[in-house]
Design a protein that fits this description.
Structural class: alpha/beta
Strand content: 5-15%
Number of helices: 26
Helix content: 40-55%
Strand order of the largest sheet: 11-12-10-13-14-9-15
Number of domains: 5
Shape: globular
CATH superfamily of the largest domain: P-loop containing nucleotide triphosphate hydrolases
């Protein structure tokens, strides 16, 4: 299909100028971006071009779509990976603990945040929990600034807690030797400001999903621009849904004011959504207060009519049964299961548990896309991953800390004793643990000391048995070796396949450490790609396209979520609605009794109202859900 006039303008963009592309859903921004890069490489092969995306899965997808081997030199990456690459150019000045060790999700949640919260509580900050630590972490990673002027930061509400957190975290990360993924962009920005970096090899930096960047990310991009690099920002302010990391629409909206010599482009022809779907989504998103006026999305000449419906059910049992029947009807009409997705606001597992029995009765497989995270939370997997990490670095502090926490008979007081000893000696936690073994003089518990000594002996024996010599790599790279170490009997077929998919994406020459460091993040991204019905959060729905999208719980108290920003709640729903090409259905239940009644505003078995996000619009007029679904089933039988 030839480019539209709007796409043609972008493809012909002058790489010596900055540029902004405001691209609505389904307007072909990825294809246009690739065509621009293809033209530049053909016409100006001397240009250094880099492409940044927001997730690793998106990076891999863009790389795959490029196809042409000549385009491989562009090396798509996430902004965090890009920042890390800048930091590794000057490791001595990066102020990161060495050797570099980025904490994974389980380590950040169950070790780092919980420990920091406990220590702050013991210092008198009695209301600090892991949740508050995570907020402070995101605020710090955004340089204590939000792009949304209406968002009140926890650091502003409690400056004492902020200051105490900074002081404790600085010592804590030194003792345990970890780096947080979220901090990499602001660290890279500091490095450029402090000593400068030679980045003459980058002439054009293309930043996709620019609306998801926070203040620290944007500062990093601006500093790179100041070094002589042109910036092309691509995104959509209507799809900014990451306020938890201090991102907001203002980031991409203010781009022309911050980046001079800027060409402004728009992509307004949507080739994804059917007419009814696009009209409903547009009507809803245009109610966002203070949203800048801009050209509305247009249908393609050959766009289908599409189908939009807002359905009311009596309760969550009828709702889940109706959703299962709707999926069955769509499949009988020829829609593959992998082309149907169910979106919920949060707590995906609870919604999946409600739906799975209904789908099983109909012989339909369902995938809850956050299941990948649960793989890395089981005790056996955590132990084996820690052992692999120790085989890479025998004194890996986070790995030893993980094993001490998981080992029966080792008390918290003993783990604190190792921390205090490491802090006094200046040794990292893992090194200090090993140097104190096996006597552990000064230990508060002889029982814990004996258990720790036995653990160290056992792990060191296991590590000796993990031979890396004479490994023959097949098509799945490091995945097969890691699966052997973990034990395939501890993983189901879907998890094994997920590990292998990651192995396909990471060349063996990158090393075992690189594979382990990226395993969880890539697995979580890839889990959203399935040939079964997917149940996933609205936040993780961005970037996918399906025939049919079903958003459940679109009612007061759930969507919008009471703790969410009302403007972002609209944008979240907009993202979910615009994933669909042919059918978009929103549902709500008049009453809820089960776990979903405790989501958002707790409201058990009391009347519920339609979502206020739709209340004032024609699309807010709901239909009887059971009647609509029965009609769909009849239509399916007639086809």
């Amino acid at each position: 299909m030839p480019p539209t006039p709007e796409q043609e303008q972008i493809i012909l963009h002058n790489p010596s100028r900055n540029g902004r592309v405001l691209a609505g859903p389904g307007t072909g921004k990825s294809w246009t971006c690739i065509e621009l890069i293809r033209r530049l490489i053909h016409e100006r092969p001397e240009l250094g071009i880099r492409l940044l995306t927001f997730t690793r899965a998106a990076t891999h997808e863009l790389a795959s779509n490029m196809g042409d081997p000549q385009l491989a030199i562009v090396r798509p990456s996430t902004i965090h990976s890009f920042a890390l690459g800048l930091l590794l150019r000057n490791p001595a000045q990066s102020r990161l603990p060495t050797p570099l060790r980025i904490a994974d999700t389980w380590e950040a949640e169950n070790l780092i945040r919980s420990n920091l919260a406990r220590r702050l509580r013991s210092a008198g900050f009695t209301r600090i929990t892991k949740r508050e630590i995570k907020k402070l972490e995101h605020e710090m990673a955004a340089r204590w600034e939000s792009l949304d002027p209406n968002l009140v930061l926890l650091a502003d509400l409690d400056p004492q807690a902020r200051n105490a957190y900074i002081g404790l975290w600085d010592i804590h990360r030194t003792v345990y030797g970890y780096t947080l993924l979220a901090e990499l962009p602001f660290r890279a920005g500091n490095l450029i400001e402090d000593i400068g970096l030679n980045i003459e090899d980058i002439n054009l930096l293309v930043v996709d999903e620019y609306q998801d960047l926070n203040e620290a990310d944007i500062r990093l991009v601006a500093l790179i621009k100041n070094e002589g690099t042109s910036i092309l920002a691509i995104g959509d302010d209507d799809q900014s849904i990451y306020s938890f990391r201090m991102a907001a629409p203002q980031g991409i909206l203010r781009f022309p004011d911050e980046f001079d010599n800027c060409d402004d482009y728009q992509l307004t022809l949507s080739r994804r959504c059917g007419r009814e779907i696009l009209e409903a989504a547009t009507s809803m998103i245009e109610t966002v207060p203070n949203r800048p006026r801009k050209p509305p999305l247009r249908h393609g000449e050959n766009a289908s009519q599409g189908k939009f419906a807002y359905l009311r059910f009596n309760n969550e049992t009828e709702e889940s049964r109706g959703v299962a029947d709707l999926v069955l009807a769509r499949h009988q009409m020829g829609v593959p299961f992998g082309d149907i997705a169910i979106f919920v606001r949060s707590q995906v597992g609870a919604w999946a548990n409600l739906l799975i029995p209904k789908f099983q009765k109909r012989g339909i497989d369902v995938v809850e896309t956050e299941w990948a995270a649960s793989i890395f939370e089981t005790e056996h997997i955590r132990r084996r991953l820690a052992t692999i990490k120790i085989s890479i670095d025998p004194s890996d502090s986070l790995a030893w800390w993980s094993l001490l926490k998981l080992e029966n008979g080792i008390a918290q007081a003993f783990r604190d004793y190792i921390y205090d000893e490491a802090r006094r000696s200046g040794e990292p936690y893992g090194s200090r643990l090993l140097s104190l073994a096996p006597e552990f003089e000064g230990s508060p518990s002889r029982q814990s000391a004996r258990a720790a000594a036995e653990l160290i002996n056992r792990v060191e024996e296991e590590v000796e048995g993990l031979s890396l010599d004479n490994i023959v790599f097949g098509g799945f790279g490091w995945a097969e070796w890691v699966l052997d170490v973990i034990g395939r009997d501890h993983l189901d077929a879907e998890a094994i396949d997920l590990f292998r998919q990651v192995g396909l994406m990471i060349p063996p020459e990158n090393g075992l450490g690189y594979f382990i460091g990226h395993l969880e993040l890539l697995a979580r991204d890839l889990a959203s790609q399935s040939n079964s019905i997917r149940v996933m959060s609205l936040t993780s729905s961005k970037g996918i396209t399906v025939d049919t999208s079903i958003v459940m719980g679109v009612e007061g108290g759930i969507i919008p979520h009471p703790r969410g920003l009302i403007e972002e709640e609209r944008r979240l729903l907009y993202v979910g609605m615009t994933r669909a090409t042919e059918m978009c259905v929103l549902t709500f239940a008049h009453r809820r009794r089960g776990p979903t009644a405790r989501h958002g505003s707790i409201n058990v078995n009391r009347p519920r109202n339609r979502s206020p996000l739709l209340d004032a619009l024609p699309i807010g007029q709901y239909q009887d859900g059971r009647r609509f679904v029965d009609s769909m089933l009849v239509d399916a039988m007639q086809e």
